Amino acid sequence: MGKRMVILAAALLLGAGLASPAQGAFIDCATFGICWGTDEADDITGTDGYDEIRGLEGGDDIRGGGSGDDIFGGEGRDSLKGNGGDDAIHGGPAGDEIRAAGDDSGGDFVDCGGGDDEAWANPGDFIDFDCEIVHFPD
Description:
By secondary structure, the protein is of the alpha/beta class. It contains two helices and 13 strands. It has helices spanning 3-15, 29-32, and strands at residues 26-28, 35-36, 43-45, 52-54, 61-63, 70-72, 79-81, 88-90, 97-99, 109-111, 118-120, 126-127, 133-135. The protein has a seven-stranded parallel beta sheet with strand order 1-3-5-7-9-11-13. A six-stranded parallel beta sheet has the order 2-4-6-8-10-12, with no helix packed on it. The longest helix is centred in the N-terminal third of the chain and has 13 residues, at 3-15.
């Protein structure tokens, strides 16, 4: 198989969501379709529409897009931010930093998961009991 065929096959697998991009990558949900992290620390950004974003291992920096998203942290200590819309943000087993405040007027769901987590939320957000420290705007 020639070099061009290998590159084409890799591009098709990435586009179909059957292979992960390079580890520790910047992942743009519009480019890769399904937003999966890697085993390393990733920088993942959602689109203006709905996204389901799932970090894997590594301390990921995950930001949702302009509308309501489902965001899942992975194994590492993640930084998760909803941005616009009513988001569902789920931390992983490690201590995570979750930011639902400042992106809208409330309506986000925050589930911190395991570990010692810290969350920033609006008064109208639903914060699950497993968030150890929660900050609300003044």
